[in-house]
Structure formats: C-alpha cells, structure tokens
Automatic annotation (TrEMBL), chain A:
Broad class of where this protein is predominantly found: membrane
GO cellular component: plasma membrane
This protein's name: NADH-ubiquinone oxidoreductase chain 4L
Topology of this chain in the membrane: Multi-pass membrane protein
Any Pfam family the entry gives: Oxidored_q2
Compartmental location: Cell membrane
Keywords from the UniProt entry: Cell membrane, Membrane, Transmembrane, Transmembrane helix
From TrEMBL, chain B:
Pfam (any one): Proton_antipo_M
Subcellular location: Endomembrane system; Membrane
Organism in which the protein naturally occurs: Filomicrobium insigne
UniProt superkingdom: Bacteria
Domain NADH:quinone oxidoreductase/Mrp antiporter transmembrane: 142-435
Membrane topology: Multi-pass membrane protein
Protein name, per record: Formate hydrogenlyase subunit 3/Multisubunit Na+/H+ antiporter, MnhD subunit
Segments passing through the bilayer: 12-31, 38-59, 85-106, 118-138, 144-163, 175-197, 217-240, 252-272, 284-303, 310-333, 353-372, 384-403, 423-442
Automatic annotation (TrEMBL), chain C:
Primary localization: membrane
Membrane topology: Multi-pass membrane protein
Annotated protein name in UniProt: Formate hydrogenlyase subunit 3/Multisubunit Na+/H+ antiporter, MnhD subunit
Organism per entry: Filomicrobium insigne
Subcellular location: Cell membrane; Membrane
Regions that span the bilayer: 6-24, 31-50, 70-91, 103-120, 126-142, 154-177, 201-221, 233-253, 265-283, 290-310, 322-341, 353-376, 388-407, 428-449, 461-479, 522-542
Superkingdom per UniProt: Bacteria
Length: 113, 504, 544
C-alpha cells in the first residue's frame, strides 16, 4: 500500500511537471525559457517512465529495467536537443542582437535562395 | 514480431542501409573536408544501391524482409523490418536524396586549395544523417526506437533550415526545433502510457494487446498530435512556411519532399499497424477534416504569396492535407474499396515527394538566376530559362492532378474510394484543392511566359546540369502517372489481410 | 497492323513527333511548315480508315484505346481540314516571327489533344486529351502578350480547369459504376444508366462539357477569348477545340435508351443558350465577338439536339449531331479566317471576301442549297415534329439575323488603307474552306444519315428551310433601320459580375491571410495543439 501511495505521488508530480512544462512553453515568449520549459516537460515524462518502471516491476525485482533504459536514452536525446536549441539561440542573438521568436519577418530575399 | 521470425541473409541489407550513411559522416569527421568529394562519391551510390536492392528483394519475395539485430528477439531486442511501404519509401528517399545531392554538388563543394569551408561539411553530414534517420524510421518496429529515429531526423533537419545563417532563417529553425520538441515530448508521453498499460512497445505485439480503453485513446492522441506537429498538419503548420522557404534550395527540397513524410509514415504505422482499432472511431474523420482544412487553407495561402519559395512552401501545407484523406477512406468499414484508397494515399505521397523536390529546386534555380523570386517580376523569365520553368510546370501539373502524372493517379484512386464509399465530402475537397492548385501554378506560369513591363535579366548563370536534375525529378512525378489505376501489389506486402485481400 | 490501325496511331504520333522536333530544333524556320503537315495523317484517317478500327496501345502508353466511329470520324476529318487550313494561314501570317518559339509547340500540343478526343475510347485517355486540348490552348490565347489576351487567358484557363474538375468527378463515377472492371467509355456508359450514381454522374458530365461548349451561363470565356486571340488561334478554338465538348456529350450520354429528365434538361439548357447567344450577339459590333456569340448559340442548338435524342432514345442522334458539328467546324473556323482576310483586303476587291462569306452566313440559317441547309436537315429527326422543332426553326431565323449582323460588321471592319501587302494566299485558304463548307455536307449526307439527300430538295423541305431565313432577313432589315434601340453590352456580358466575384475572393483571401498570421503565433499554435489533442481523444470515444 505504501508503494501504491509513492507511485501515486510520483505520478502526480510527473503530471504537474508536464503541465508546468507545457504551460511555460506556450506562454513564455523568451526562447531560453521555452528551452527550459521543454526540459521540465521532459523531466515530467521521464518521471512518468520511472513510475511505470516501479509499478510494472516483476516480483523480486526493484523495477522494470526496460523503461529505465528508455529514460536513459531519452535523457541523451533531450540533452542533444537542448544543446542544439541553445546553439541556435546563441546564433540568433549573434546575428540579430535580440532573442525573440515573435514578430517574425518573412525570410529576406538573400536567405530565400 | 513473433518469435518465429528470424533474420535472413538479405536482412543484412537493412543494417547496411542504416549504417552506410553514418559511416560516411564518420569518415568525414575522421578524414576532414579534403576528402569530402570522394566520400560522397562512395557513400551516395552505395546507399542508393542498397536501398534499391532492398526494394527489389521485398518486391520479388512478396513478403517483408526482417533482420533481428544481434539475434536478440523482440520485444527486448531490436528488429528491423521492411514491408512493402517501407521498401517503397526507402526507394523514393534514395532517389530524391541522390538527385538532390547531384544538384547540390556545385553549391556545396569543398573548394580545392582554399581553406576548408564549413557549409559544405555541415550540409553533407546533415544530408547523410537525415538519410539514415529516415531509413531507421521506415524500418523500425518498436515505438521507442522510432522515437529515437524521429529525433535524429529532426536534429538533422533543423540545421538544414538555417544553413545560410541569416536572422530570419535562424529564427525559423528555432521555431521549428522548439515546436518539434514539444511534439516529441507528447509522443514520448504516449509511449510511456502504452508501455505502462501493455508492457510492450513492439508494434505487432501491441496490435494484439491493445484494448479500446481510456489509456489507449489518450496515448494514441498524444502520439498522433506529437507527430502532427512534425508533419505540420494544419493548424500546427506555424513553422513550415518560413523554414521551408528559408532553407537553401537543396535543403528545402529534402525537407518538403521527405522530412515531413517521415513523421507521417509513423502516424500510418501507429494507426494502421499498432492500433487498427482506431479505424472504428471518429478519429480518422477528424484527421481527414484537418487534412481538408489544410488543403483549402494552404492552397488559398499559396495563391496569395508574392514570393515563389513561399508559394511552394504553402503548397506543401496543402498537399500534406491530401495524405490524411487516406485515413477515413482506407480504414472504412466497407472494405471493398479500402485498398484503392491505400494505394492512392501512398501514390500521393510519392508523387508529391518528386514534384515538390523538383519544384523547390526549380524555384532555387530561378532565384539564383534572377537574383530574386518575386512572382510579379517574373514576366518573360520563362523564355530565358525554359527548362527550369518546364520543370516547375510539369511538377505543377502533378500537383494539380493533370494526367499523365502521379498526382492524377493518386487523386483518381482517392476520388474513386471516396465516391464509392459514399464519403462525398472528401471528393469535393480533392477537386476544389486541384482547382486552387491550378490557380497558383498558372499564376506563376502565366507570369513567366508572357512578357512583363520590364524584362528580367539573368544575374547569375545557372549550370545546365542542375536544371537537368530538377527536370528529371519532375519527369519522375510524371512517370508515376503510368501506374495502373488499381491497388499496387508492392504496397500490400506485409499488410494484414484486411487491406490485402479485397480487390474490387 | 492494317492500314487503318497505322493511320489511327499516326493521327496522334505524327503531331507528337513534330512537337518533339519543334522542341529540340534550335531554328524554327524549318519546322513551321510541319505545322501544316502534322495534321495530314488525321485527314487520311478520316478518309481511309474504316469505322470500327480499334488499337489498344501497350501499358507503357497508358493502355490507351484508340477507336474510330462515325461521329469521331466526321469531326476528325473536318477538324483536320481546319487545322491544315489555319496552320497554313498561321504560317503565312507569322512570317518573320518564326523564331517566336512557344507558338508552334502549343499549336501542335493543342492539335494533338483536339484529334485525340475524337478517336480515344477509354476514360483516362479521353481525360488526358481533353486536358491537353484545353490547357495547351491557354498558351495560344496569351501568345501575343497584350493585356486583353492575358485577361482572356486567365478567364479561359479558369473555366478550363473548372470543366476538368467536373469531368474528373464524372469519370471517376463512371469507373466506379463499372466496379473498376473496365475503363472503356462504352462499358462505363452502359453501366452508368442503371447505376445509383447515374444522376450525379450525368450532372457532372453536363456541367463539364457544358463549360467546354459554352452553355449559358458558362459562356463568358468565349467572347473574351475569341476577340483577343490571334486570327488563326480564334479559328481553331471556335472551330476545332470546342468540339471536344461536343464529342464528349456524344460519347458519354447514354443514347439508345430513353433517359427522360436529363434529356429535357439538356434541351432546355441548349435552347436558352441558342437564343441568349443571339440576343447578346446582335448588340455587339466587333465581328469576332459576334462570331463568339454565334458559337454560344450554335453549341446551344447542338446541346438541344443531343438532349432531345437522349429524351427520346433516338439512336441516329450522335451521327446527326456530329454531322451538324462538322459543318460548324468548317463554317465558324472559316469565318474567323474571313475576318483576317477582310482586314487586309482593299476596297476594290472586297466582294472576294464578302460574297463567299454571305454563302456561309446564310448556311447558319439553313438557306437552301448551302451546307448549313443539309446540316440542319440532318438534325430534324432527333428534334421531332413538335414544339421543339418549332423552336429550332425560330432559332434558325435568329441565327440568320445574327449572322447578317456579322456580315455588316465584317464589311465595316475591312481595311481602308491602300496597302501593298496582298492577302492573296490567305484568300485562297479562305475560299478553299468555303468550298468545303458547301460541298462536304452534301457529299457526306447519304453516308452519315443513310438517306438520300434528294429529300432535302423536296418542295416542302425547301420551303421549311427558306421561311426562317426570310424572317431573319426581315428582322435584320427592321433592326438595320433602328440600330440605336439596342443596348450597349460589354463582350462577355455577365463577366461584369467578375469584378464582384473578384472583390469577394479578395476579401476571402485577405481574411485567410489574417487567420494564418493569427494561427501561426506561437501561443495560439501551442493552445491549438492542446485543443487538437483533446478533440482527438474525444473523437475516439465517438463510435462510427
């Protein structure tokens, strides 16, 4: 029963993180915050995998290893995504002097080629 | 996969088709830019050959090709499986990537003697990564592995958008990346739910285990919407027009022709293979409604554009919509016409891939030659560069659905299925979409072939070989029109009997 | 292969090969004469290939089925004559502009399509050639690049695409009616008359072909196009390419079994066009526009004939309608050439144009001994004896009036300058067509209708043919006295509605653009993502 409670709590935490992440991603205008929001969202999803690993554990094992393996892979992917996003953001600041995604202009003629 | 399935020798083809492009990237990193040309010269033909061989083997055997990596059986091990649709997708991908590579050869060449340039290096690495990722998407059997492939695809596609490095393109790339990442997270959340409920992510096993219950519906919705963000189905298309219009021509061609189709392919896997039960709900109708909205909305937007590349990009938004009409038509309860819709949907995908690649390359050539791509100032340019505008026109005819072209056959099949199944609304959308496409294609061609107020001048000469490459892709779209108007055998290979058995 | 089969294939192959030659050769000076020669196999086919000759092309050529039947043969022969004549005219009038390369290419493409629709017997093939003839002609219309031509081209191509869209739906329905067993037009038409899909299929067929033949209210493209295209282009458009719609109706309507409802509808639509064309036509002063409205009227008459045939199940109808259409190909195409010749003819020799033109013009009213008389005689049987036949008589009177009005405007349009350039060669082409217009219908009547042409010379028939013409002449006299009573109507009449439609479309486009801008805001798209997710979950709960 205690385990069930822990699972429920962690499950709720995961849901809260996902909710926060999605909210931040949609509402926050600054790109950096969006990147952070994606990471929070990702953490929520990974926590969900953890909860599932725990709940789905076979008798005798502490946890189901498959979701744990997925979380590790997922973290690697999320890390690369963050790195790529930050690199792009830096580039954006470099060429435009400002970090904003709104008021987007149509690609200029020079870029269009 | 069932445990009885084992690898065959031919299955090694599947491994090499994933590895060869990666080997190319590694060789680039190890040997440096000096050998870039040689590496490309080796890797592209080799990968193409393997893709074609895979397609040939699948077709001639008439059954899926399977490779169990390391002999570890699924669900724990990884299996690669090429059924009819993956084989066809691999072949189309190989043809288009190689054609684009030939096109880009001049633009992204490593200058000999000069210090190593970065753009060529990055471009070729990205194209190869993209190729490998696409093949992984076509061959994957496990929803989590497919997630990894999907991310690889996104990471290869995003930098392609901002290769030119201008402010607008970097912004477009960032928007693309962030929106795609949101989609990935939704997809991942769906896989977590599915694993939690059924203890497997293997597509075949899932298909046996899923029940029509709440967790399945939520997972399916999350995964589908996640994939829709990357496919840019209306109204989730915010990133596509600036990204596809801003990339260099070769990049736009690959992005529009192939990358958006990668995530679409996964949606098909999900709906038709993993959860065929979704066909009994109103889900397919909803997807097709979004598709119909995309067709109408995207076409009107294309008609309104002043810039050629944006016109082509919005046309992609519209053409993606047609793909989703396949869902209600091929999943219909009355099954005598579903295989026709299935073939029609895939042919639409293939012919759009060829036509759109050709069109973006042609638009790039026009922009290169004239120094601009303002549609209003094209007056008479068709007489200066007839072959390029012929390319644009031929590809456009396929988009409109004029025979003989792949677009015509696809539309004919989809229309047949929709009127035979009594789903008239989709027939109306297909026809209106064709009319609007006619509008934007003739708008460009009319401008290009009639004299304007001041005649355009060629500012940069364009090599004939690049024109010929773009033209051959357009011819490819036309050749698909010689497909017989019946369900295609190759696309049925490895399908459940539901789709394969009934030919009207 | 028999000679007939070879000719049938050559009808399409020769223009196509010439097209490839024209595309690949740098200098077009040598290929211009090929414009004329490329149409000759079509003429030979019409003359020497037997009706019923059929060729099935291999899969690599789309499994096209070519087949020659009587209506197709009549139209093919007349169209080939017109293409040869106008081709020669075009070559002469474009002297010095041979290097203007797109023109020969689109000319040949349009010609291939025009021949193709007459001899192809399968659905996909028909759609292919119909598309070819419709869309290639766009480039002929805009060839001279002037703003009126561009506008006419835009209107033309819009209607062409619309008609293709309707036909695509119709053809798909026909194929579905055969359960995809056969793509032959014959089988599909047999299947459709008993299929539950019959009514939508018939509606789309009538709409699609109706646009092509300019049935009111889809006629607006005709006056604009014929008035702004060059003379030879207007001649082939009005004479040959429009008949793609006529052959379509002939091929796709299920004749032989009475089909009430649709027959009456088509007849009514046809007569509305027949009279509407005359009413607007007599207010026009540009001879080309008048001819365009005459085409609206004449095509309406053919539609009415086909409609009556459909309603009564009269099996002679296809041949009779094709016979009348054959007369129209040569007569209308010829009159357009007459406009071109008249503009170059000096005052003193004007009778060389006007006199033959008068012979052709009276034919439109069915004046005895003209080609039109026997053509009108041929369509008597489908029209029957009742009120419909009476309407046809009245329309003959109306046509006489319109064509006399044309003759007057033609006379007014002739050149007043004393130019040295002679139009002698063009005049010969025009005169040759006049001979064909008069002689061909009389020569072919017995073979087509399987009755002696002597019947048309009986006193009763002569009288019936004469009085509508007399009424027409009388009306012309009255109107000629008081030309001011006619209102001014712009060419294309209801095209003025276009500006409303245009501003409506523009508003719609503006709105779409604003919506797009809104939807592509990050926060909106993000919220929509959640909405779509919820909607999808909801949709899974809704069983079908």
């Amino acid at each position: 029963m205690a385990i069930m409670n822990a699972i429920t709590i962690f499950g709720l935490c995961a849901a809260a993180l996902v909710g926060l992440g999605i909210f931040g991603l949609i509402v926050n205008p600054q790109p950096l915050r969006k990147i952070l929001a994606i990471n929070i969202l990702g953490s929520g999803v990974f926590l969900m995998f953890g909860v599932i690993a725990r709940r789905g554990a076979a008798a005798g094992l502490g946890g189901d290893p498959v979701p744990q393996a997925m979380v590790i892979t997922g973290i690697v992917v999320a890390f690369s995504a963050t790195a790529l996003a930050v690199a792009l953001l830096l580039r954006l600041v470099l060429v435009s002097g400002a970090a904003t995604l709104e008021a987007e202009a149509e690609p200029s003629e020079k870029d269009g080629r | 996969m069932a445990a009885a399935e084992t690898s065959s020798i031919a299955g090694l083809l599947l491994v090499s088709v994933l590895i060869l492009p990666v080997v190319g990237i590694l060789a680039q990193l190890a040997l440096g830019g000096r050998f870039l040309n040689w590496i490309c010269l080796a890797v592209f033909p080799a990968s193409f050959g393997v893709s074609a061989a895979t397609c040939a083997v699948v077709w001639s055997h008439g059954e899926p090709l399977i490779y169990i990596v390391g002999g570890w059986q699924p669900p724990l091990g990884i299996a690669l499986r090429a059924d009819g649709i993956s084989a066809a997708m691999m072949l189309v991908t190989a043809i288009i990537i190689c054609a684009v590579a030939i096109f880009a050869r001049v633009e992204f060449t490593q200058p000999s003697g000069a210090p190593e340039a970065r753009a060529p290096f990055v471009f070729w690495a990205l194209i190869l990564a993209l190729w490998s990722a696409l093949n992984a998407l076509f061959l994957g059997c496990d929803l989590f592995n497919l997630y990894v492939a999907l991310e690889l695809l996104t990471f290869a596609a995003v930098p392609l958008v901002c290769l030119k490095g201008g402010e607008a393109t970097v912004k477009a790339a960032l928007r693309y990346l962030l929106f795609a990442l949101l989609g990935s997270m939704l997809y991942l959340m769906g896989t977590a739910l599915l694993y939690g409920a059924y203890g497997t992510l293997d597509i075949t096993l899932l298909a046996q285990r899923v029940h029509p219950e709440r967790v399945t519906w939520i997972a399916a919705a999350l995964m589908t919407v996640g994939l829709l963000t990357k496919t840019a189905l209306f109204p989730l298309h915010l990133w596509l027009p600036p990204a596809h219009a801003g990339a260099p021509a070769a990049g736009s061609a690959v992005l529009s022709a192939l990358v958006v189709k990668g995530s679409f392919f996964l949606i098909v896997r999900l709906w038709f293979d993993a959860m065929p039960g979704l066909g009994h709900t109103a889900g397919p109708q909803l997807l097709a409604s979004l598709g119909a909205a995309a067709i109408l909305f995207g076409s009107v937007m294309a008609l309104r554009q002043q810039r050629l590349k944006l016109l082509v990009a919005y046309s992609t938004v519209a053409q993606i919509g047609y793909l989703f009409l396949m869902f209600p038509l091929a999943m219909a309860a009355e099954q005598s016409w579903t295989s026709l819709a299935w073939t029609g949907g895939w042919l639409q995908l293939f012919s759009h891939a060829f036509a759109k690649a050709a069109m973006f390359l042609a638009a790039g050539l026009i922009a290169d030659a004239l120094g601009h791509d303002r549609i209003n100032d094209l007056g008479g340019a068709g007489r200066l560069r007839p072959l390029t505008f012929c390319t644009f026109g031929l590809a456009g005819l396929s988009l409109i659905g004029v025979p003989p072209s792949g677009g015509f056959v696809a539309k004919w099949l989809l229309l047949s299925a929709s009127v035979a199944e009594g789903q008239w609304i989709w027939a109306a959308v297909i026809v209106v979409g064709g009319l609007l496409a006619g509008g934007y294609i003739f708008k460009v061609l009319g401008r290009a072939f009639t004299a304007g107020s001041d005649a355009p001048v060629i500012v940069t000469p364009v090599s004939l070989s690049r024109e010929v490459v773009a033209f051959s892709l357009a011819v490819g779209a036309v050749l698909l029109g010689f497909f017989p108007l019946e369900p295609a055998e190759i696309l049925q290979i490895g399908r459940p009997e539901i789709l394969g058995s009934t030919v009207p | 292969m028999t000679l007939g089969e070879v000719l049938l294939v050559a009808t399409l192959a020769v223009p196509l090969v010439t097209l490839v030659l024209a595309l690949s050769s740098g200098s077009h000076r040598r290929t211009t004469i090929l414009l004329v020669l490329a149409a000759i196999p079509a003429l030979l086919t019409a003359l020497f290939a037997e009706s019923g000759t059929t060729v099935v092309l291999p899969q690599a050529l789309l499994s096209l089925v070519l087949s020659l039947d009587l209506p197709g043969r009549l139209l093919l022969g007349a169209a080939a004559l017109l293409w040869i004549a106008t081709g020669a005219y075009a070559v002469l009038s474009r002297r010095g502009r041979e290097n203007d390369n797109p023109f020969p290419i689109w000319w040949l493409a349009t010609m291939t399509g025009s021949f193709g629709v007459f001899i192809v017997a399968d659905l996909v093939g028909f759609y292919l050639f119909f598309t070819l003839v419709s869309l290639s002609a766009y480039w002929l219309v805009v060839d001279d690049g002037a703003p009126p031509a561009k506008r006419a081209g835009a209107v033309y191509v819009s209607f062409a695409l619309l008609s293709e869209a309707f036909l695509l739906l119709a053809f798909v329905l026909l194929a579905v009616a055969t359960r995809n067993d056969s793509f032959l037009i014959r089988d599909a038409v047999a299947a459709i008359s008993t299929s539950p899909l019959r009514d939508p299929a018939m509606a789309f067929l009538v709409l699609g072909f109706g646009i092509k033949i300019g049935l009111v209210p889809f006629h607006v493209w005709m006056p604009l196009t014929y008035a702004s295209a060059s003379i030879p282009v207007a001649a082939v458009l009005s004479g040959a390419t429009v008949k793609a719609g006529v052959i379509g109706l002939i091929r796709f309507l299920p004749f032989g079994v009475p089909l009430p409802g649709w027959g009456e509808t088509l007849t009514a639509l046809g007569f509305v066009s027949a009279f509407y064309g005359v009413l607007i036509g007599i207010t026009q002063t540009n001879p080309r526009t008048i001819l365009a409205y005459s085409s609206v009227s004449q095509m309406g008459l053919i539609a009415a004939v086909l409609g009556m045939g459909l309603a009564t199940g009269n099996s002679i109808t296809p041949a009779a309608a094709a016979f009348y259409a054959m007369f129209h190909i040569l007569a209308k195409g010829g009159l357009f050439l007459a406009i071109g010749v008249a503009q170059k003819t000096r005052h003193r020799t004007e009778w060389t144009v006007l006199l033959p033109a008068a012979v052709v013009v009276l034919g439109f009213g069915g004046f005895p001994m003209t080609g039109g008389a026997i053509a009108k005689y041929a369509i008597k049987s489908p029209l029957g004896d009742g009120d419909v036949a009476m309407l046809a008589m009245v329309s003959a009177a109306a046509s006489t009036l319109l064509m006399l009005h044309f003759l007057r405007c033609l006379r007014a349009s002739r050149s007043h300058e004393t130019r040295t350039t002679s139009a002698a060669e063009q005049s010969f082409i025009w005169l040759a067509i006049v001979v064909a217009v008069v002689a061909l219908p009389w020569a072919l009547y017995p073979a087509v209708i399987q009755a002696s042409a002597h019947d048309a010379l009986s006193f009763d028939a002569l009288w019936k043919a004469t009085w509508p013409v007399l009424i027409g002449v009388l009306l012309f006299g009255v109107l000629g006295r008081a030309p001011r009573i006619l209102p001014m109507i712009p060419p294309g009449d209801i095209i003025v509605l276009q500006s409303w439609a245009w501003s409506g479309a523009k508003a719609l486009g503006d709105a779409t653009e604003r919506i797009d801008e809104y939807l592509r805001r990050w926060s909106i798209a993000g919220s929509l993502l959640l909405v779509v997710t919820l909607a999808l979950i909801g949709s899974f709960y809704v069983g079908r």
